Amino acid sequence: MGADALLAGPAPVLTSVVRASALAGRDEVAAIGVDVVCVPRMSQLISEGGQAFLQRSWTSHELADVGDDTERLATRWAAKEAVMKCLGLGISDLDPHDIEIVSSESGAPSAVLRDSAAERARSLGIAKFHVSASHESGWAVAIAVASKVTEQDDSEVSVQGEEGS
Fold first, then answer.
1. pLDDT 10s digits, 41-75
2. Nearest CA among 159, 124, 132, 158 for reference residue 28
3. Are 108 and 16 in contact (CB under 8 A)?
4. Which domains, from first to last, does the chain contain?
5. How far is C-alpha 118 from the chain's CA centre?
6. Which position among 57, 74, 96, 114 has the lowest Cβ density within 10 Å, counted as fewest Cβ atoms?
7. Percent helix, strand and coil across the chain, each to the nearest 5
């Protein structure tokens, strides 16, 4: 199916993509992860789990950034899961606070890793993550692309100490 046919149909669920140019240059792709979250299901989990579920699943910074917007919480969760997949880990393998999804001033998402997630990234030679996320019509989706350290690139995964530092 050509691009014209895709654009002529209903609006695509995936409205945000990682551009190949963002990965050009010194980055060597180490892994790709993707996740999709059903927003009504996330809303149900939040309703059932209340404040304890929110505090267990997202950092205080994530919660402050998105407020009570379930679509944005679901999108952040999808991004966390996409990063976990790049690391070859699942939710049972680490604390959800070890992966924090933050937004730049423009709203672009990025991942900050701590503790076991940061250690795993280092052990895999991952220098950084490229994250893209979106939500539409009751679905949240995110993709993460992990880049390896190359000889020309000595950057490291964004790691913070205590929450808020």
1. 999 999 999 999 999 999 999 999 998 899 999 99
2. 124
3. no
4. 21-148 (3.90.470.20)
5. 14
6. 96
7. 40, 25, 30
